[in-house]
Design a protein that fits this description.
Length: 481
């Protein structure tokens, strides 16, 4: 059969079917398939009639085969009568629901399969065909019924929710106005109005997150939290996703709610730290003084120990990269580096300290710290990140061959983000150093990139424009102009 030798296959299957010791009924269906490939429709009818007369047990599925045999010959009306006989058998014996419906599915007669499952559900309420129906409704494009059946499954077993959401993801998009998104939203809101179960809030929240509508997702998560006032983990996760998607206003709303209502000091601390970090990232120069004061107030409240590690790290980053106070940031990080933190936390301190040293153009000291991280955590993602920063620092420094050597290794990094960054910088160096062995243009561009890193954007733009004008480096990052 697999090799297309249908005549040979049919002769072997005929022997198996006629062997009285053979009790495997699948050989009958296999023989039917072989006859279909050979267009021996008469033989199919004869085989089915013979088997029906000797074994009533397979009558229901053989009726479907007889109908399908007519479909292949273009006799749809005759096929419908056989299909209807099989469906009527379900009405008499609803325990045959699965065997008949699955045979209809085998022959891709999905409408009939749905009809059989619906009859079986009505006649045998204790049986559960929601999974089969949900899948078939999806294949037939009946989204509303597909969502309804999957929600029924979740109602019966909440553990099914993750699987259902994975299925919904195949139809849901980030467009809130799409037909499928609208249908699911209406289905959930309808059920929520008739039965205010937290399950529907959870599914609505998930839907709004897919649409990147974090404001409405927050409304649902807030309603969930107000039911039991236990954990704010979902709210914190939502705030972080909103930040990743750059919906900062929604993130602020979520964090404000957490700060005001958190019963756990740790939860309140996390929300305060993230909110202040977001404020510092988007602050203007006029706001720096106020933000610095708020950092100091939080550190005074929480103390300068291991519990406030994240806050201290954020403060040092703000001082160096925003407040133009790198010396104070270095002192803070040097103190952190002496504290009794975990190996991973110390690596994070070294990473930021090295970043600040690059900011101050102390490249050699920075390279030593980056290398220490690779030695301390050789198989960790932080080691790959530090290796990329070694390459980037070497690029700023003008040591392009060494930077390229590091970057070639990182092209296969386990982190896609690091691999992509490495690829981009690698192409920048290799594409524009082949003919210019003195690296004049590339050096000028590297200095401009360093100015950008130092948050001296005006000087960076001026350097790029001058580089493009005087050295005619039209392909060398001209888009940065």
């Amino acid at each position: 059969m697999d090799q297309g030798e249908y005549s040979k296959a049919a002769s072997i299957y005929e022997k198996l079917v006629n062997d009285k010791k053979n009790r495997n009924y699948n050989t009958v269906f296999s023989l039917i398939d072989a006859y279909h490939q050979l267009e021996e429709y008469g033989k199919v009818d004869s085989l089915i009639d013979k088997k029906v007369s000797t074994s009533f047990a397979y009558k229901q599925t053989l009726l479907i085969e007889k109908g399908y045999n007519q479909v292949l010959q273009g006799n749809d009306s005759i096929a419908s009568s056989y299909y209807q006989q099989a469906i009527d058998l379900v009405k008499e014996k609803p325990e045959l629901t699965y065997s008949i419906a699955s045979r209809f599915e085998k022959r891709t007669e999905l409408d009939e399969a749905v009809q059989v499952y619906e009859i079986g559900t009505q006649l045998r309420p204790q049986a559960n065909y929601s999974f089969q129906l949900a899948r078939l409704y999806g294949e037939l494009g009946d989204m509303e019924k597909m969502f309804e059946e999957n929600i029924k499954l979740i109602e019966k077993n909440v553990a099914y929710r993750a699987r259902a959401q994975a299925l919904f993801s195949q139809y849901i998009t980030d467009d809130a106005l799409s037909e499928t998104n609208t249908i699911l939203r209406k289905v959930l809101l309808k059920r929520l109005r008739s039965n205010p179960d937290v399950l529907y809030n959870q599914l609505l929240s998930w839907l709004f997150v897919q649409q990147k509508d974090f404001k409405n997702a927050f409304i649902q998560e807030k309603a969930i939290y107000n039911r039991d006032k236990e954990s704010m983990d979902n709210l914190q996760d939502l705030a972080e996703v909103a930040v990743e998607e750059n919906d900062i206003p929604a993130a602020f709303d979520i964090l404000d709610f957490m700060i005001e209502n958190a019963q756990s000091p740790f939860t309140r601390y996390n929300a305060q730290v993230l909110k202040l970090k977001l404020r510092s990232n988007g602050a203007s120069v006029d706001e720096y003084s106020q933000i610095k004061q708020e950092y100091e107030q939080l550190l005074e409240f929480y103390g300068r120990d291991q519990r406030s590690f994240r806050l201290q790290l954020d403060y040092a980053r703000f001082l160096a990269f925003k407040n133009d106070n790198a010396p104070l940031a270095i002192d803070l990080l040097a103190d952190l580096n002496k504290a009794n933190f975990s190996q991973f936390d110390k690596a994070r301190v070294k990473m930021l300290l090295a970043d600040v040293l690059v900011l101050q153009e102390q490249f050699n000291r920075a390279l030593i710290l980056y290398s220490q991280i690779q030695n301390d955590l050789p198989n960790d993602l932080l080691a790959q990140e530090s290796q990329y920063r070694v390459a980037r620092t070497s690029f700023y420094k003008g040591d392009f061959p060494w930077a390229l050597t590091q970057l070639k290794v990182l092209r296969s990094a386990s982190s896609k983000l690091i691999a992509n960054d490495a690829m981009q910088l690698s192409l920048t160096i290799s594409d524009h150093s082949g003919q210019d062995t003195t690296y004049v243009a590339l050096s000028a561009f590297a200095k401009a990139e360093l100015k950008q890193y130092q948050n001296k954007r005006k000087q960076a733009i001026e350097a790029i424009i001058m580089c493009c004008k005087t050295m005619q480096v039209t392909t060398l990052k001209m888009r940065h102009c």
